[in-house]
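## tool: complex_structure
## caller: assistant
## args:
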Amino acid sequence: MTVFAAQAGGRRRGGRRLLPDLTGWGFVLPATLVIVGLSLFPAAWALLLSLRDGDLLTGGDYVGLRNYSDMLADTELAAAAGHTAVYTVLFVPGSVVLGLALALALNLKIRLIGFYRTCFFVPYVVSAAATGILANFVFDPDFGIVNAGLKAVGLPAMGFLQDPDQAMLTLVLISIWGGVGMPAVVYLAALQDIPRELVEAARVDGGVGRHVLRHVVLPQLRPATVFLLIWQTITALQLFDLVYTTTKGQPLDSTTTIVFYLYRQAFQLFHSGYGTAIAYVLFLVTLAISGAVLWRSAR
Amino acid sequence: MKPKLKGRHLAHLILMPAALLFVAPLAWMVLTAFMPDSDINTYPPKLWPEHFTMAGFTRIFTEDDYPLWLANTVIVAVAAVAGHVVLCSLAGYGFARIGFRGRGLTFGALMATIMVPTQVLMIPTFLLFKNMGLIDTLGAAIVPWLASAFGVFLMRQFFLSLPKELEEAATIDGCSRLGVFFRVVLPLARPALATLVVFTLLGAWNDLLWPLIAISSEDSYTLQLGLATFSGARHTEWSALMAGNVVAVLPLVAAFVLAQRHFVATMSFSGLKG
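## result:
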């Protein structure tokens, strides 16, 4: 409405400078209000909350940096950070390398290629809640199909999500199953953008497949790789949904991740100030890792 | 010719079992949804139902609040998609085509929010919504999905890639900015909108953490929240659990298959692949 009014009125008054300003703001204001109101404003507020000992009901008192210093002595948080690090170190390279391999295969011009692409991407749209139910069913130590399969080929049954030593590894496996479609699609798009002449020229010059891949294709995929490393790292550091729908941090807290711990602190124990401080530190770690990846890739 | 043929067979030899391995859990999920619990609770588990039954589906739609949760999720998803399509494409166009004061700064500020993770935002947003009386209502699940910085970015990149001449011609013909936007630009934006719709649908439909925090009464549960709770309550009633899963996953699979051909193209103009 304001846009129409501004256009009609503006032209008559000859307000040449005002018109584009009002039109432009008319277009961007609604989305800007939503995003600023629900991102920038809460982000600033969170910083203030992290300096208080609030409990979600009352604001609490100003405690300075105590929430942050408390984190240093919190052994449960350290354990959660360790679990998250293990998950990240396995999930990020695992999903990116497998995604690249899939994209290279899915870029072939062969029959059934559309079917293959769909197969690898479909798990990506399955929610964590649905994946959780399915995982509990498939990996059930007593009745699950995976153990039935292991038994059929003469291997011992395993505990999977109920074994403290295997639970995190099982979650990595499930995450790669559900998440590899994303890197595969990004790499596929990047592959299709490589000028065909480049690959053909390398072939004509006598390049063998392996060498063409390493010296021609991979360098061209570098921006996609940088993007994916950052994206998947952020995703991994924020792991929560799958933990909530499968193990709830168990067995023996072996799958308690940073965000799961944060959720418990803020919304079950009502330590909202402490929870916000953890969130902010996680944010800073994410920024630092992203920055490091970008810096390394720029050299 | 010979080595090429060999390569193709090799590709199928690797891709076929790998692809089947990826869909097998989902295929089995669908089959289990049609099995009676007596077929499921045996060892070793049955791969193919001996007796097909709709009992699982009947149970979730009659004995539980599942239909309510499904309706709630449909409402949230429709609002999210509508909000994104209208607000993000308007803003994307404004940032791409209209030179106004404060454009660079505003766009930069919006893009900076992409870096801020949900975890930082959820506690203040919870407090904000509590003050507004939104907590424990469906509104709490809807409002954060009305627009996103990613959506604005996606649409802006697409509009930048369109040739300006079409819009200029329409403007000369006496079309207003908004007229140009709705009659000329938006119809051309279909591939970008398809991607925006699917990603928004995916996010809003599958969201778990935020509804878990913002909604506690079962009347306002979303499907994901219901599934996550349901799996604890109906621990061994696998046919009902799998039926619930099938109904929850199906719309997204359908949306993805329909929009699939747009994805790779959209990745190109958004600059993601570099």
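## assistant note: Residues 2-49 of chain A form one domain. The mean pLDDT of chain A is 87. Handing back to user.
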